[in-house]
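Run log, item B.
One chain of 198 residues. Sequence copied directly from the ordering sheet:
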Amino acid sequence: MSRRCLLFVSSAFAVVALLMCIQSSHAIDDDAETNAGISPVLVELKERISELVEKSHPEAKIYFRGNYLFCEYETMAFLVYGRGKDGVYSHNPTSTVGPNRNGFLIRLNAQEFDDGLGTQAGGLVLGVRKGVYWSGYVNHYRIPETNQVIHLQLSFGTTSPETRKFFNEFRKVLANTGKPIGTFTKKPEFPKDENELE
């Protein structure tokens, strides 16, 4: 087999594997029996977020997977080269689902509040961060009268006025559910679509 043919076959195999990964990542799991262990706060949030999404982004998907509540709009798989603490990038990319230019991906889960320092699970820094393909916003919302927090990871591309309005309404819903742990002197500014007129 020629080298060119071998390269084509291996590339085709990689594309098929990537598509299968995307299909499984979008699996919608609304079976009540499967979701029996889901936090009641997340179940309530799903209803409230569904109402918001229906008004501004009716094509968005909202679903449970494991102990997480997901809401995604215009997402796709990206090949991402991870970077170590030493700043060196990995030679092997991993496939990660993230938002396209106008999309967003919201991940919510309920966790035990562990240290009160504002730096929780996985060493994620609270606040806004800029990535290679998209930006992110991470915060925790303390659920009253419990030792739990709602952990929010929001990934987004450039945003239209409707999407920025949705994000602001979404954060209000979370703030009504619990008190934000990360308080920032500057509100997160979601990037505008470069085609949008001021």
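Observations after the first pass:
- Helices lie at 3-25, 40-56, 161-177.
- The two ends are 57 Å apart (CA to CA).
Flagged for discussion on Thursday.
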